[in-house]
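Hi R.,

As promised on Friday, here is the backbone we talked about, encoded as structure tokens. Could you run it through your design pipeline when you get a chance and send me back a sequence?
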């Protein structure tokens, strides 16, 4: 397979844009993202760096099954402590203290963003969609081992696409306060941005794949240093009034330790890349249909605020239930993974 340095850079850009779109636009947190300089300078680097860093670690240490990625995605989500401080102080537009706090942790907010939103919308979904697009461009493009079943045109996968689009539609409609003049350009421009970067990355017979976005040692070190520097700058300067007492910071560090210990104890996936065994997989056309549904859903829920409120409220309560269940199913899924006799499971 031909690899092109330029296509790899564009592929890396595409992966970051996918993470930013599904995380921030679908949640309504960045309703002006394609047009906002602050989003490009602050929010986008956070998502771009974190998805590259944690995906790179996942592949390097052979822990990139979907249950593994869920745990990496939880680690990803803890930027919401050091940067935005949502884990401690509640959501950004929240004026009252969090309703439930234990050891300085805002329990409801943490369940929603750490156990549900970031593992799925910031990490797993962008990784799967990225592979979908690259596989559509080149059927011989390798996939991460075990991920193909999430790209088959099964009823389950199509239903998941519909659910994701509806969740995103409700999120951006609410985030834009049902303003059609915001909802329409943001949803359309976000979709066009992905399409344009994808077309640029694959033009002139270029064939980037998931391998194109897996960083080597030097890249991981550089991105890791960027993340550390970003945390060091934003922690004391951005919303310093939300900085918790020592127990809140210790609790977050313990979360890191526990998640890393679970990952370390989990079985590795022996084969990193595999060729598709199916002639028909969901691809670029399906992605466009899902994004079209996302745009329509957003417009409908902006035009009918009561409907948008019902869907959004259902999402919120659903996350509080589904988030912990996902964590439990992840642990059970890791137990079902068989350690390979050929791969050392101690690292």
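Update: got your reply. Pasting your designed sequence below so it's all in one thread:
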């Amino acid at each position: 397979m031909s690899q092109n340095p330029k296509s790899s850079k564009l592929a890396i850009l595409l992966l970051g844009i996918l993470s930013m779109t599904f995380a921030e636009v679908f949640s309504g947190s960045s309703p002006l993202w394609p047009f906002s300089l602050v989003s490009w300078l602050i929010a986008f680097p956070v998502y771009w760096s974190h998805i590259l860093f944690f995906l790179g670690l996942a592949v390097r240490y052979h822990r990139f099954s979907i249950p593994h990625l869920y745990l990496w995605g939880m680690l990803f989500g803890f930027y919401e402590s050091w940067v935005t401080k949502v884990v401690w102080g509640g959501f950004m537009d929240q004026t009252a203290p969090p309703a439930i706090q234990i050891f300085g942790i805002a329990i409801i907010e943490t369940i929603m963003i750490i156990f549900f939103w970031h593992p799925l919308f910031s990490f797993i979904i962008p990784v799967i969609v990225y592979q979908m697009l690259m596989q559509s461009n080149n059927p011989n493009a390798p996939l991460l081992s075990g991920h193909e079943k999430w790209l088959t045109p099964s009823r389950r996968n199509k239903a998941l696409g519909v659910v994701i689009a509806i969740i995103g539609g409700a999120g951006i409609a609410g985030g834009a306060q049902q303003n059609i003049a915001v909802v329409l350009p943001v949803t359309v421009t976000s979709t066009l941005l992905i399409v344009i970067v994808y077309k640029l990355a694959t033009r002139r017979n270029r064939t980037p794949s998931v391998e194109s976005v897996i960083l080597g040692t030097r890249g991981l070190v550089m991105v890791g240093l960027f993340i550390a520097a970003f945390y060091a700058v934003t922690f004391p300067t951005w919303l310093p009034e939300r900085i918790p007492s020592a127990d809140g910071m210790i609790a977050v560090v313990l979360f890191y330790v526990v998640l890393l210990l679970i990952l370390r104890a989990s079985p590795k996936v022996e084969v990193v890349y595999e060729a598709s065994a199916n002639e028909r997989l969901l691809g670029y056309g399906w992605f466009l249909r899902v994004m079209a549904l996302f745009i329509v859903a957003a417009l409908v829920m902006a035009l009918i605020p009561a409907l948008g409120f019902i869907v959004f409220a259902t999402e919120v309560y659903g996350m509080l239930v589904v988030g912990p269940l996902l964590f439990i199913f992840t642990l059970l899924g890791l137990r079902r993974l068989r350690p390979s006799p050929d791969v050392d499971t101690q690292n």
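One thing I noticed while checking it: The longest strand covers residues 101-102.

Thanks again,
M.
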